[in-house]
Design a protein that fits this description.
heterodimer, A: 450 residues, globular, B: mainly alpha, 83% helix
Amino acid sequence: MKSGYRLNDCLLIEAKNDRAPRVNRLIPFFLVFLLAVLLLPRLSYPDHTLADWLNSPEVNGYYWLAVGVITLFFAFFVWHKNRAEIPLHYGLMFLWVLLFTFILAFINENAFRYLGADGVIQTFRLPLLARLAYEAKRMDDLLFCFAFLFLFSYAKNEPKYKNIVPYSVLLFALASVIYAFIKGPDSAGSYLVYSSFFSGNEDFGKVLFASAFASALLAYDHLGALRYVFVVLIVGFVALSGVLALAITFWSLVLVSFLVGMAILFNQKAENRALKTGCLFYVLLIAVFIVLIAIPSSLADTLRVYCGNELAAVFSERITLWSHYLNSLSSWRVFLGDGALGHYRISLAYGSSTAFTPLENGALEVYDNGGLVYLLFYFLVIVVGVFRFKKREEKSRSFFAVVLAFSCAFLVFTIFSDERLFFSSNFLSLFLSAILLCYPHHQDPMIDEE
Amino acid sequence: MSKQKNNLFLYWLVFFLLVLLLQATSFLVSLYLLAEILRNGNRWIAFGVVVFVNLLLLLAISFLNEKMSEGFLGSAMQKIRISRFTAAFLMVMIASLLGALLVYFIDDVIYPSVALTPFGPIAVLLASLGAVLEFAFAYCLFQGQGISRL
């Protein structure tokens, strides 16, 4: 009875695949291209001029705009080939947000009066290029969000080449890890920093986080010995993030594995005793590790160098930054965000420099973009995205639980990084959104297992 | 007759949406003023007025919602209720724009006062929570009451 049901399911998938346009098979390749393009400005180049130019606030926005336009063209192509009907209500919601963004471009301030170093009140005017670049990035994120929710999700009906995204991320991460050990730690800084190919260790951490997620997907998708290889890789990436002093990644991955372990432990349908015992052992190991790092001792000091110092340093540095940003808000800016000027206001008011200061917090970046409306919009989009995913994966709750655990850990990750929640044009956000909404139904290998 | 009924529905709908919009705006503004009071204690009159208006509007909404959920108006509202998700979101969006305008008048035009203590963090927190609550409230309200509830 059970195998008959699965055969029907298989036939249904086959029938769907016959109808699906071939362009849907290109989506994973396009996503790999996007991931590569998003990583380009983050790499460390021998000649710093290129990296500096790509990351300058004036150029950076146009770079994202170009990426956004390419995405829009591809998304339009996918929509045209699928003859897709976008749900009218959500389509309208995007239209309203676009209109709101357009209004905000005129409302946000462009000048700021501040007390200069010489004690004289000075006026800072935002350069036009910086304003346009900021608007470009703001628009770009909306385009990505729309494309992921409604257009790229057609890849779900086309399992062919589906693993190209996780495999690409995994191979790049392995190469990064090998290079990190060859290169060794960076000499500057108050804590241990391994940056590998990247200009900072934060991006390296993001790639390791994504690769652990990719390994989890591939472990779920493969059978036999290969599955165990990927399971070992997941544990390996957790350990490597600790050894390479990537504390934010390490604790995010520990949170994921803890959540998955607890989900398996309390799943009454899971009857595999060996798996449950393994999970119990792993959860206890995490508890012991936390106790060891918390109680002062020479061992705790050593562990903190690898798993705590970066987190403590980053947190103390960024909490000051967030406090400065939020303290500078008042009046109508509380409702609508501060726009591009918000990034300059902090450095002008507290450092008397005219440098662009990134907020280094996903939620704050979203808030600065569009205030309460943008926060609510992203909150609703995440809820809608998760429910859409749950509906698609209702026959495999364990797969849903794994993806949900990684998504929760990613939201923790966004607190300490510039990743803007979900569906944005940042590397990790894009990878998670791609898996959440575009990764095809994994049921085929399970059918083979039968 | 049908045209007259349609006109009647249109008037009631505009009135209902206007009241709802004002309520959402006053709710967001009252939370902002509360944050300012908690840090600086300087907006008691404005806060009192806004909260009083908000309570009056809530009372009006409870009567209006009952009226818009029965008879001809109730059945005509079904078309709006289908788009309740977008409608609730749009409501919060316009309310935040109106709230920003109102706060600008209170803080920068009518009674500008130098806030001694920064109140941004608590204001952002309260206003964000208020926006989520207002969305949930508007969504539930657009579902209607009784037999016309979706």
